[in-house]
């Protein structure tokens, strides 16, 4: 593996199937552009005469659209920004925190990252979309799934406050798991 001498930017993007690392190499003398997602080369272009522009690719299991914008700031200085689904990374992550819940837990020495997509009620665990069974209960709904031999349940209960909406709680082996902040 050649050393990444032209590495100019690294981003970490938390998606439902995991946290992905995006690395970008930009050779301002050769015009080379290389995009790596999780260490795997996605795009390689040599001898680009135009040093500004954009590179678009996909990230993760859901093939989320990502774009790296290359802009000249002054002289030979360049600025690199990452957009996810057409939004700046910051905006995308702010919006994501409203549409998903994430929990990180350890079971029998293994770390798990569980993500609930609130709009679809899809549950992801360590990159895999889980088989779930939903049921209505007295105070809301429960979404049941298994992680290894552990039974898990995401309870959805109305907060009673319109602004807060529905509160989602992950319960594993009758224990409540605190939500993770990514």
UniProtKB/TrEMBL annotation:
Entry annotated with the keyword Endoplasmic reticulum: no
Annotated Gene Ontology cellular component terms: cytoplasm
InterPro entries from the UniProt entry: FAIM1, FAIM1_dom_sf
UniProt KW Cytoplasm keyword: yes
Keywords assigned: Apoptosis, Cytoplasm
Cellular localisation: Cytoplasm
GO biological process: apoptotic process; negative regulation of extrinsic apoptotic signaling pathway via death domain receptors
Annotated PANTHER family: FAS APOPTOTIC INHIBITORY MOLECULE 1, FAS APOPTOTIC INHIBITORY MOLECULE FAIM
Function according to Swiss-Prot or TrEMBL: Plays a role as an inducible effector molecule that mediates Fas resistance produced by surface Ig engagement in B cells.
Family per record: Belongs to the FAIM1 family.
Protein name listed in UniProt: Fas apoptotic inhibitory molecule 1
